[in-house]
UniProtKB/TrEMBL annotation:
<dbReference type="InterPro" id="IPR027417">
    <property type="entry name" value="P-loop_NTPase"/>
</dbReference>
<protein>
    <recommendedName>
        <fullName>Sulfotransferase</fullName>
        <ecNumber>2.8.2.-</ecNumber>
    </recommendedName>
</protein>
<keyword id="KW-0808">Transferase</keyword>
<dbReference type="InterPro" id="IPR000863">
    <property type="entry name" value="Sulfotransferase_dom"/>
</dbReference>
<comment type="similarity">
    <text>Belongs to the sulfotransferase 1 family.</text>
</comment>
<dbReference type="GO" id="GO:0008146">
    <property type="term" value="F:sulfotransferase activity"/>
</dbReference>
<dbReference type="Pfam" id="PF00685">
    <property type="entry name" value="Sulfotransfer_1"/>
</dbReference>
<feature type="domain" description="Sulfotransferase">
    <location>
        <begin position="3"/>
        <end position="129"/>
    </location>
</feature>
Length: 133
């Protein structure tokens, strides 16, 4: 149970918005960010209308942003180590950090739970054009 409603509804809402308003909503998948972080940083910069100049590329600005926004860097920020919770915000910042690895969910779900979630995900995303793969 999610305090914020079904996960799939959020994903599809943003996905559909990105298709309807591609200049206003950008969807990136965590798996893609992990696989090609520099490309995703460039994509965000272009989306925001501030692509990197050749000089910035040469100076390594993209790589520096990747480093500053890495799981290791963000998970070690004091604000993200907080376990503060409230009625309005039942999840602490630290709840959003585990290992930062694609597929780590397999260590937290039983095979049966995984199968159920796969079926629900397939049903919810069927015919939408959205895929986690």
């Amino acid at each position: 149970v999610s305090h914020y409603g079904p996960f799939w509804d959020h994903v599809l809402g943003y996905w559909k918005a990105s298709l309807e308003w591609p200049k206003k909503v950008l969807c990136l998948k965590y798996e893609d960010v992990k696989k090609e972080p520099s490309g995703c940083v460039r994509k965000v910069a272009e989306f925001l209308g501030v692509p990197f100049s050749p000089e910035e590329e040469k100076k390594g600005i993209v790589e520096e942003i990747v480093k500053l926004c890495s799981f290791e860097s963000l998970s070690n920020q004091d604000v993200n180590k907080s376990d503060t919770r409230s009625r309005e915000n039942p999840m602490s910042n630290s709840d959003f950090f585990r290992k930062g690895e694609v597929g780590d969910w397999v260590n937290h779900l039983s095979p049966q739970m995984s199968e159920i979630l796969d079926k629900i995900t397939e049903q919810k995303f069927q015919g939408t054009g959205f895929s986690f793969h």
